[in-house]
């Protein structure tokens, strides 16, 4: 797998845009996604090992990420913002574009570092979907996939 090339800005630095335009696409309103790889700060794309899988679930405006953060997403017409409500603090912002069935995300973390992630749809996302939260946890289900996030960690299960 190879990472898409970064788009240079007028200053020559790679920007968090996906396709050279100022606008990206919103995240799908429902989906179960497996991360295929990540590039940090313009470095090489590193494929995720099978035993280190990262799963992101989206049910309406609610999401949960198995790395240990969950909350809501918003879209301003060009960028998606992941508002962390439970788990790891902070928000991250990025743009998405489709690459076949995959989503390519370019974004910025709260500390200013940048990332590129490749997300592939998981089979078994049909069926029940929803989001539930309590004082110290957030759970999202999409079909056969469930991610639970609390202040300690994120956990992924396949039903």
Question: How would you portray this structure in words?
Answer:
The protein is mainly β. Helix content is 0%, strand content 53%. It contains no helices and 13 strands. The strands form 2 sheets. Strands 1-3-4-5-6-7-8-9 form an 8-stranded antiparallel beta barrel. It has a 4-stranded antiparallel β-sheet with strand order 10-11-12-13, with no helix packed on it. Strand 1 (30-40) and strand 2 form a beta hairpin. The protein is globular, with a radius of gyration of 15 Å.
In short:
With 159 residues, the chain is mainly β. Helix content is 0%, strand content 53%.
Output the keywords.
4-stranded antiparallel beta sheet; 8-stranded antiparallel beta barrel; mainly beta; 159 residues
Describe the SSE topology.
Elements: E1 30-40, E2 46-47, E3 55-59, E4 62-65, E5 69-75, E6 80-87, E7 91-99, E8 102-108, E9 114-121, E10 129-134, E11 137-142, E12 145-150, E13 154-158
Antiparallel strand pairs: 1-2, 1-3, 1-9, 3-4, 4-5, 5-6, 6-7, 7-8, 8-9, 10-11, 11-12, 12-13
| Apparent shape | globular
Termini distance? Answer: 29 Å
What is the alpha-carbon Rg in Å?
15 Å
Amount of helix: under 10%
Structural class by SSE content: mainly beta
What is the average per-residue confidence, as pLDDT, rounded to a whole number? Answer: 87
Quickly count the helices. 0
Overall strand count: 13
Order of helices and strands: EEEEEEEEEEEEE
The largest pleated sheet is described as: 8 strands, antiparallel, barrel
Task: Kindly estimate the percentage of residues that lie in beta strands according to DSSP.
Answer: over 45%
Low-confidence stretches: 2-22
Strands of the widest sheet, in order across it, are 1-3-4-5-6-7-8-9
């Amino acid at each position: 797998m190879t990472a898409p090339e970064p788009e240079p800005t007028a200053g020559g630095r790679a920007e968090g845009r996906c396709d050279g335009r100022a606008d990206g696409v919103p995240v799908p309103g429902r989906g179960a996604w497996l991360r295929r790889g990540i590039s940090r700060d313009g470095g090489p794309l590193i494929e995720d090992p099978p035993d280190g899988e990262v799963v992101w679930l989206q049910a309406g405006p609610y999401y949960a990420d198995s790395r240990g953060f969950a909350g809501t997403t918003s879209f301003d017409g060009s960028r998606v913002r992941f508002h962390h409500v439970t788990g790891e603090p902070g928000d991250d912002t990025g743009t998405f574009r489709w690459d076949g069935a995959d989503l390519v995300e370019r974004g910025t973390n709260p500390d200013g570092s940048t990332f590129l992630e490749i997300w592939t749809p998981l089979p078994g996302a049909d069926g029940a979907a929803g989001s539930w939260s309590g004082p110290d946890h957030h759970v999202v289900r999409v079909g056969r996939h469930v991610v639970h996030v609390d202040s300690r960690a994120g956990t992924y299960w396949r039903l």
